[in-house]
Design brief:
This protein is α/β, with parallel strands linked by helices. It is built from ten helices and twelve strands.
Length: about 260
């Protein structure tokens, strides 16, 4: 195991930039994860772990734990771990993973997709990815300046789903054609004259748009939708948080496939 003690070391600088900069993550093809449990998930699900960085105390405890072949392991003093971790209270383990290809395929072969339109909170994106994984969604499509799914906050909130569930970024103008090419209905959680309640929505093969909390679904995308969906709720409540709305839609999809 290597040991790094300088804050000016190139690996330490790399971690700092991966934590902060979306464009740099794309340029280097790497993203930053934190936590021992998440590291275990990454190894279990065969994520392409590049480098593991452990604080000295944790390195002593985990020094004998086997890593996949080719993974670089580094120990650092606790104060350096505090300076580079994206968490206020670091767990003592950071690791770099090779980024997946975020370009969607020419055709989506599954039948259940969520489209996140302009969600700005990476924690919400990660939480939705976790729900998508739990309820058998075939993948997430991110559009409209959505938060980065490889942001450390999104990765942490996904609780390992980032290693299992496909996620892609799509330009807004290309999204409707991709959905049509894939023989999917394009639906949105929004109010319109043709809005139907969720339990009656045509979800056999569909891509459902979840809009941002502040702006909802963008008008251009909403105009291209085949149907709009209303989630039943008490009249005293105007709307749900995007992550909560996504979970309800995903559960309804999942429920329909369960045996009676």
């Amino acid at each position: 195991m290597e040991r790094i003690t300088s804050r000016a070391n190139s690996t330490i600088s790399l971690v700092r930039r991966l934590s902060r900069e979306r464009d740099f993550r794309r340029e280097r093809g790497l993203y930053l994860c934190d936590g021992v449990k998440l590291l275990g998930e990454a190894i279990q699900w065969h994520a392409e772990v590049d480098t593991v960085i452990l604080s000295d105390d944790l390195a002593d405890a985990l020094g004998g734990t086997p890593m996949p072949e080719g993974v670089r392991t580094v120990a650092v003093p606790r104060e350096i771990m505090h300076s580079i971790s994206p968490m206020r209270t670091p767990q003592g383990a950071l690791f770099l993973v090779k980024a997946p290809d975020l370009t969607p395929p020419e055709r989506l072969t599954g039948g259940r997709y969520l489209i996140l339109d302009g969600l700005q909170d990476p924690g919400n994106v990660g939480t939705i990815l976790r729900s998508a994984d739990a309820f058998g969604c075939d993948g997430l499509l991110l559009t409209g300046s959505c938060a980065d799914p490889l942001n450390p906050k999104a990765v942490r909130a996904s609780m390992g789903a980032i290693f299992r569930t496909p996620v892609w970024e799509v330009e807004a103008e290309k999204l409707p054609d991709l959905v049509r090419r894939s023989d999917l209905a394009l639906c949105a959680t929004a109010l319109r004259s043709d809005t139907v309640s969720l339990e009656c929505a045509p979800l056999t093969r569909a891509a459902v748009v979840i809009g941002s909390e502040g702006s909802g679904v963008s008008p251009d995308l909403l105009d291209r939708c085949d149907a709009t969906i209303r989630i039943p709720m008490e009249p005293t409540c105007e709307s749900l948080n995007a992550a909560a709305a996504a979970a309800v839609v995903l559960w309804e999809w999942y429920r329909r496939g369960l045996p009676c």
